[in-house]
Amino acid sequence: MKKVRIDKWLWSVRIFKTRTIATDACKSGKIKVKETNVKPSYMVEVGEMIHVKKDGFNMMFEVVDLIEKRVGAPIAQKCYVNHTTEEELNKYKDWFIGKAAAEQREKGAGRPTKKERRTIDKFKSDLF
Questions:
Q1: Is pLDDT above 70 for 100?
Q2: Is 124 within the bounds of a domain?
Q3: Is position 26 within any domain?
Q4: Which of 8, 71, 74, 77 is most buried when burial is the number of CB atoms within 10 A of its CB?
Q5: Residue 75: partners with Cβ closer than 8 Å, 6 or more residues away
Q6: Residue 117 to residues 35, 67, 99: CA-CA distances in angstroms?
């Protein structure tokens, strides 16, 4: 039966942006298989459930296919089944609600002066 290092698999299916980040997550105990923390060298098999703690969210993935090379997102999504609970998914959505885009100034206006900064801060404090 074919096996792949867990840090390599997490990187190749695009759960982590770099393999180094995936390795560090394993070392810090944020990756679990069968309720036990795993090292980056753990050899993952098809059918295993992987628990990932990332950015304050608890995600669960079932391994469907093993790949060692990083591939495009549509192909990577076919390699796992996301078993993350609905509550965690809603927590992710709720985190974005109410987040406004950053303020922008007119082109060429430069940085605000001290007086303009006070006016902006007063305006913002009146809103909330």
A1: no
A2: no
A3: yes
A4: 8
A5: none
A6: 51, 52, 21
- DSSP conformation letters of the chain: ---EEHHHHHHHTTSSSSHHHHHHHHHTT-EEETTEE--TT-EE-TT-EEEEEETTEEEEEEE-----S---HHHHHTTEEE---HHHHHHHHHHHTTPPPPP---TT--SPPHHHHHHHHHHHHHH-
Would 74 be classed as within a structural domain? yes
Domain that includes residue 72, residue range: 4-95
Model pLDDT for residues 28-80, shown as the tens digit of each residue: 999 999 989 999 999 999 999 999 998 888 999 999 999 989 999 999 999 99
**pLDDT confidence of residue 120:** 86
How confident is the model at residue 108, as a pLDDT? 86
* pLDDT class of 99 with cuts at 50, 70, 90: low
**Those residues with Cβ within 8 angstroms of residue 8's Cβ, 6 or more apart along the chain or in another chain:** 19, 22, 68
Number of domains within the chain:
1
